[in-house]
Amino acid sequence: MTIIGVVPILIGVLTANLALSTMVLLSALSVSFADVGGAYHNRAISMLTAAVFMTVTALVATITGGNPWLVTLVMFAWAFFGSMVGLYGSLPGKVGFSANLVFILVMGQPASIEVAWVRMIAFIIGAAWSMAISLCPWPFRRFLPARQAVGGYYQAGSALLRKVCHIELGQHWNEEVKQERARLREAYDKAHRIVADRRSQGSGAHPFNYLLLMLILRADSIMEAVIALFEELAVSRTYNYHRGEQSAFVMEQCAALLEQLAYAIAGKKHALRPETLEHSLYAIETQEYALRASLPQLEKDYYAFANTRKLEPQPEPQHSLVHEWLSLRLVNTRNLANLLERMSELIRETRDLLMQSDGQEILQGMLQTEATSKSNFSWKALYAVVRERVLLFKDNLTLRSFILRHALRLAAILAVAVAIAKLLNIPDGSWIGMNILFILRPDYGSTRKQTVQRILGTVIGAILAMLLITALHINFLTFPIAALHINFLTFPIAALHINFLIFPVLIVVSFFCFMYQDNNNTLFILLFTTFLIIMFSLVMPGNGLVPFIRIATALVGGSMGILASYLFWPLWEHKRLPQQMGRTILANQTYIASVLAAYIAGGNKKDKLEAVRRASKDAHVQNVNAAAAFQRMLNEQKASENEIERFQMLVTYNQRICDSVTTLAAHISTRPEHGEFHQLERFRQQMKWVLRDVEDATRTGQRISINPPLKEMLREVLVTLRYMLATYPANNQTTGGRDGATSIKRI
User: Fold this and answer.
1) DSSP state of 85
2) How many CA atoms lie within 13 A of 103 on its CB side?
3) 426 and 357 assigned to the same domain
């Protein structure tokens, strides 16, 4: 992005044609913003589509920009359809957004039809430049996006582990950890999407795609074990079974292992150091051995206390608490040992995939030509797709559709902004519409948050730009280009006087600006504002009003955007959140039912395990959506304290339910063959009805109470689990260690 942005400016300076190079820059950045990421062919399609629409948009905006009334009407239509195409996914949505941005900026510089054609050529050049830089590794490193996506999945898991290493007792998942979990979900979706795309292209038989699939499946199991491990460690810390620093040490070692695997998968040479990996694995397995070595004594204490209680005519309540504490500690210790063993096994399997000879050849890029399958073109299939798209558009042509309401709101407010800027001849008035486009969101909470971030970033960025421009013009020499004696250039550069230090500054600002584009919106706006103002200082040297105009238009555009979001069809998250919470509870209910069904069925039933996998994916997605919706609600002024507290509890406890069920799912493969598991059938049915009541109450706002049968049923389940533990065969008691791990693991 830095190369794409700075090179057109440099060429414009050298050719004394900064106005036209600005159009090249605008086209290049707009096409880059439409890059959806992922596989190269998907990126190429999205960027080429954006290039076509950007070029047409530039032509229309240039021609209509001189007529205030015409450009207002065209702006309304352009913004409406540019927003409505978001119905069809992220690619059309990005293209529509970029088209609106280009129209707003180009219509502020109207010109004749001859200039419009020249600008079209500039936009084609800018689009070609952007695509060339973005897709240049395609012929040489065809599998780089896939490797980076899968490596990013492992890296996200490592980052999550590092965050939970030192989490405070009593804080199940703090805000930082929740953000890492959201990033892990995004990495999961991206990795799975790329692998699915490649397989859908007919390249699934290629050995590299098989390796990708195996690595992703290993990662899915590792992330499940990570959540289960954290849950078990939280239990051990709550009851003080094990020391917290030991838990943190184990998590750090697991995080280091995942990080090494991530670098190796992404293509970093010599990232997979066998000696370091073996050292970390040895540390984990040593901790596992220590846990298993403590099991015989824990079992001995448990059985001794249980036999003592049998002799008591009336057991005292505190003895029941001690008995429960001993049983929980025994189960927790076994679970931790099993999970550490599972984690080390998965990491070794992943390491073996990467270290084997054919895997190394694949990762080094020494591959044969990728096999592709040709699909037959069908007019009937094309007609069906077009018909489906048309019907979807028609179905949303109603005021009940929040997409239509947002499109109308955006189109109307942008048309008003354009009319004001044109009729009042406001200098750089198109920036008002640009700010509206960036901040206006379908819901009021997100719009308010974007407005604050944009105004804050714009003000600080404008101040920083003024300081940099002042420093460059006062403290450093300005070198005349004529002094360089470049005689072979024929364009008029001799008249230019440029401080060459401005280009290193632009490079640094641009680099950090786009580095934070997806991670810190305020910092991105701050640096992007600085970049734009420095660039305009080259286009319009000596115009010291540019930073102040930038701040003023940000304030005006922000005010208009937030008023439009508040007054016209406002979408309040506190009204939508109950429905989202209902979907989350329903997903958790399905997840619980599928996991318990796998326990009841026993064996390695593929259909049951596949149902668990699908339910797990849906439950985690819905919980992430609920957390995101709750964060948007916090930005709303109309959300009451009671609503915030109620929904915070719902989001938190639903996430804890999901994590607890994930912990149960992690132990499916180690479940014992006990006949008493049929008792869980009643528990599953009871949970189904209870969560259905909770879901209805959440959607409708009614209150419910937990009925006595549920409490009684929970007691019965606890009794069953204790009975299973009490009937543990005496001949399976071992002295710990790997030799007896299998029999201990079964219970």
Assistant:
1) G
2) 29
3) no
- Phi, psi dihedral angles at 624 (to 5 degrees): -65, -40
Nearest to 738 by CA among 329, 337, 346: 337
Same domain, 129 and 149: no
**Block residue for tokens 């073109």:** 377
Nearest to 54 by CA among 138, 125, 132: 125
Q: Which domain holds residue 428?
A: 402-485+507-571
Strands 479-480 and 497-498: antiparallel
Q: Does 37 share its domain with 99?
A: yes
Q: To the nearest whole number, what is the mean pLDDT of the chain?
A: 76
d(CA 362, CA 508): 36
406/548 same-domain check: yes
Helices 502-515 and 2-14 cross at an angle (nearest 10°) of 160
What secondary structure, in 3-state letters, does 542-558 show? CCCCHHHHHHHHHHHHH
**Residue 278 CB partners (closer than 8 Å, separation 6+):** none
Tell me the one-letter amino acid at 339.
L
Reported as a single tens digit per residue, the pLDDT across 133-151 is 888 777 666 677 778 888 8
Taking the C-alpha atoms of residue 609 and residue 542, their distance in angstroms, rounded to an integer, is 69
For residue 185, give Cα distances in angstroms to 98, 178, 432: 26, 11, 35
Q: Which residue, 179, 16, 74, is CA-closest to 624?
A: 179
Average pLDDT over residues 678-702: 75
> Looking up tokens 């406001």, which residue turns up?
426
Q: Domain for residue 438, yes or no?
A: yes
* Greatest distance between any 2 Cα atoms in the chain: 109
Q: CB atoms < 10 A from the CB of 386, how many?
A: 10
Q: Which two tokens stand for residue 331?
A: 């189960």
Type of residue at 246: Q
SS3 content of the chain, % helix, strand, coil (to 5): 80, 0, 20
The Cα 480–Cα 487 span in angstroms is: 14
Residues contacting residue 257 through CB under 8 Å, at least 6 positions apart: 277, 280, 281, 284, 347
- Domain check: are 37 and 105 in the same one? yes
CA angle 508, 9, 24 (to 5 degrees): 120
The answer on 518 and 587 residing in a single domain is no
Region 687-714: mean pLDDT is 72
With CA atoms as reference, report the closest residue to 495 among 546, 544, 541: 541
Task: Label residue 34 exposed, middle or buried (CB < 10 Å: 0-12, 13-18, 19+).
Answer: buried
Q: Is residue 397 part of a domain?
A: no
Structure tokens at 133: 């830089």
Q: What is the 3-state secondary structure (H, E, C) of 247-299?
A: HHHHHHHHHHHHHHHHHHHHCCCCCCCHHHHHHHHHHHHHHHHHHHHHHHHHH
CB 194 within 8 A of CB 186: no
* pLDDT confidence band for 488 (50 / 70 / 90): very low
pLDDT for 265-276, tens place per residue? 876 655 667 777
Tokens of 323: 């008995």
Please give the tally of structural domains in the chain: 4
Continuous segment of H or E residues that includes residue 480:
strand 479-480
pLDDT, position 478:
41
Query: Is residue 544 located within the same domain as residue 580?
Result: no
Q: Which two tokens stand for residue 577?
A: 């959140």
387, part of any domain: no
**Neighbouring residues of 518: CB distance < 8 A, sequence distance ≥ 6:** none
Question: Tokens at residue 392, please?
Answer: 């979807």
Residue 125: the pLDDT is: 93
Please check the confidence at residue 313 and state whether its pLDDT lies above 50.
Answer: yes
CA-wise closest residue to 212 among 345, 342, 359, 344: 359
Residue 377 lies in a domain: no
